[in-house]
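Support request, please re-run this one:
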Amino acid sequence: MTLSEKLLPKLSEWRPAGPGRHSFGQTFADEGWGVQMAADKTDALAALVWELALARTGDAPAGLTLRAWAERTAARAVGLLEPLKVLEVDEVRGEAVLRSAAPAKKGEQVAYYEVKLSGTARAEVRRFTATRTASGRTQVAFALTHEVLAKLAGDIAG
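Re-run finished. Output below.
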């Protein structure tokens, strides 16, 4: 079974109690990944996600580079509202940033996904909004079905 196939039932079974942000964490040793998620709401079908993070639990595949991982993730992660593109790869700092290729626009606001890769061992997915007339951005929660979340995790993990 793949990471996506193992993660999907765990997300569907997760039922945190009470209001506020809740944390999910699961290690999938056979797949070599740990998955963490912070969500403001969750039900049988979907979650209102604040952040999705993946951490490699073993060594990266031989020859995998940060740039290759970033490009592969942008090409494979097609279940989001907007496709991703590689914005920056900084080999010296060991970081890559992917963002929505065409951010969603509502009036003066834009909304976009951001995936930050740290080395070849960690990935974080967040969503932000910003206005065209003011500097800065604000992190916001984003709704995804459990199926799309599991696929996204699998697409990032490869």
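The beta strands are 22-28, 33-42, 46-56, 84-90, 95-100, 104-106, 109-118, 122-131, 138-140, 142-145. Residues 146-157 form the longest helix (12 residues).
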